[in-house]
């Protein structure tokens, strides 16, 4: 079948016009009188996705040197504002975030107002038991690691640390410590690991909205994981509500229930916490106190086996300042400046969360792992001006609600383990500590 040239030209023009109109309909128009923000031009439909490649944090840093601290890129059909300065506030309104905690997650909410602040405040109560919970779990890890070394001569510490950290946050939030082979505890750990894997894979529908209406296996798994975990938390909160005694506050959940009841009695209160919001706050606290700490401990051990001389300095400081007669406590932090400096450098240098570490503008030799950068000249005190530049937990009103719990847990776990154990990598093996966008918890035997 042959067509006249004029018909082919007409078809081509029609296809071109339709394509142009579709692309134009997805692009947000710039209001009259305003200029487009500086930034690289993207390709139709996919934007700058190809330029970001496998290390988007490095690519965006290079772009910011060309276009400035405030620039615009295009991911799919969605314009994305990239800030390279120090003002971190709010969250992007992404499609995926609407399915975390039924869209009411404190961590992933775009809200920064009174409700957000009211929901942050109760977190400070019930933390007095943290030291006791961490101490029990660290003792278990020491015993387990010694047993594994005696029987197998080598092991992957992460698989045991992740369960201990989960147990601490369960004790803090639910007032319950599980046996390490308890199926409910292991299901919580597995749920969290699955959630991390699915979330890390990204969701194209966040940036190409039309994909929200198409079948998406990853998004289906993402929604299912959130529903399963929220269902588990609803059961726990319901049990707490039934057995609640205002004169016997057992954990953070009890503290939140009391806060909720007090606000209901106070009719003049502007902000009240509902039962569902209690579930959402516990959900956020669990996430902040679980994955954050396991990631930090995993990185810490990788640095310690990579730099054994640093491990020896920490152990020497522990021996001199605390000895072996008692376990380290939170009150010892000021007495252990080198240990504190190591933890700060671990947070600064590692791939903790994407885009939270402004390496290049703030640090001399940012790629070098050097705890001494956080010590004053005499080496007996942490330089607070330098330590405040470490923004792993964010800053300002929207910084991580679990920052205190996270920092305290890492300090206690690390010091108790290093007081009694020495870690080294297996002969002939190397640990990859190259910073990247996400931390993959691959098996690393020691």
UniProtKB/TrEMBL annotation:
InterPro entries: Cyt_P450, Cyt_P450_CS, Cyt_P450_E_grp-I, Cyt_P450_E_grp-I_CYP1, Cyt_P450_sf. GO terms for molecular function: heme binding; iron ion binding; steroid 17-alpha-monooxygenase activity. The chain crosses the membrane at residues 6-26. GO terms for cellular component: endoplasmic reticulum membrane. GO terms for biological process: hormone biosynthetic process; progesterone metabolic process. The keyword Metal-binding applies. It is found in: Endoplasmic reticulum membrane; Microsome membrane. SUPFAM superfamilies: Cytochrome P450. Its EC number is 1.14.14.1. PROSITE patterns: CYTOCHROME_P450. Belongs to the cytochrome P450 family. Cytochromes P450 are a group of heme-thiolate monooxygenases. They oxidize a variety of structurally unrelated compounds, including steroids, fatty acids, and xenobiotics. This is Cytochrome P450 1A.
């Amino acid at each position: 079948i042959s067509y006249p040239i004029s018909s082919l030209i007409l078809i081509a023009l029609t296809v071109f016009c339709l394509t142009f109109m579709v692309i134009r309909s997805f692009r947000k128009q710039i209001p009259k009188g305003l200029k487009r923000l500086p930034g690289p031009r993207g390709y139709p439909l996919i934007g700058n996705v190809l330029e970001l490649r496998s290390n988007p944090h490095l690519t965006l840093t290079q772009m910011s040197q060309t276009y400035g601290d405030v620039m615009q890129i295009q991911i799919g059909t969605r314009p994305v504002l990239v800030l390279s300065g120090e003002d971190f506030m709010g969250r992007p309104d992404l499609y995926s975030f609407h399915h975390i905690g039924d869209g009411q997650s404190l961590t992933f909410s775009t809200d920064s107002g009174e409700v957000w602040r009211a929901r942050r405040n109760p977190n400070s109560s019930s933390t007095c038991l943290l030291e006791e919970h961490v101490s029990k779990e660290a003792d278990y890890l020491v015993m387990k690691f010694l047993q594994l070394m005696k029987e197998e001569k080598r092991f992957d510490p992460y698989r045991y640390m992740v369960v201990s950290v989960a147990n601490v946050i369960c004790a803090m939030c639910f007032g319950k410590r599980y046996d390490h082979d308890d199926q409910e505890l292991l299901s919580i750990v597995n749920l969290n690991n699955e959630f991390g894997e699915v979330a890390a894979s990204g969701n194209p529908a966040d940036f190409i909205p039309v994909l929200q209406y198409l079948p998406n296996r990853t998004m289906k798994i993402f929604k299912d994981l959130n529903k399963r975990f929220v269902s588990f938390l609803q059961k726990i909160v319901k049990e707490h509500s039934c057995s609640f005694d205002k004169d016997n506050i057992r954990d953070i959940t009890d503290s939140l229930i009391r806060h909720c009841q007090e606000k209901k009695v106070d009719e003049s209160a502007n902000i009240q916490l509902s039962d569902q919001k209690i579930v959402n706050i516990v959900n956020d606290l669990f996430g902040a106190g679980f994955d954050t700490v396991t990631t930090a401990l995993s990185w810490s051990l990788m640095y310690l086996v990579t730099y054994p001389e640093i491990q020896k300095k920490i152990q020497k400081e522990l021996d001199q300042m605390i000895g072996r007669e008692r376990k380290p406590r939170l009150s010892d932090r000021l007495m252990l400046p080198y240990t504190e400096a190591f933890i700060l450098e671990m947070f600064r240098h590692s791939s903790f969360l994407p885009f939270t570490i402004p390496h290049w503008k703030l640090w001399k030799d940012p790629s070098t792992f050097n705890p001494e950068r956080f010590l004053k000249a005499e080496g007996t005190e942490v330089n607070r001006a330098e330590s405040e530049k470490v923004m792993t937990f964010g800053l300002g009103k929207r910084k991580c609600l679990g920052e205190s719990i996270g920092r305290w847990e890492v300090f206690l776990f690390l010091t108790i383990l290093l007081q009694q154990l020495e870690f080294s990598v297996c002969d002939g093996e190397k640990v990859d500590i190259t910073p990247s966008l996400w931390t993959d918890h691959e098996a690393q035997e020691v």
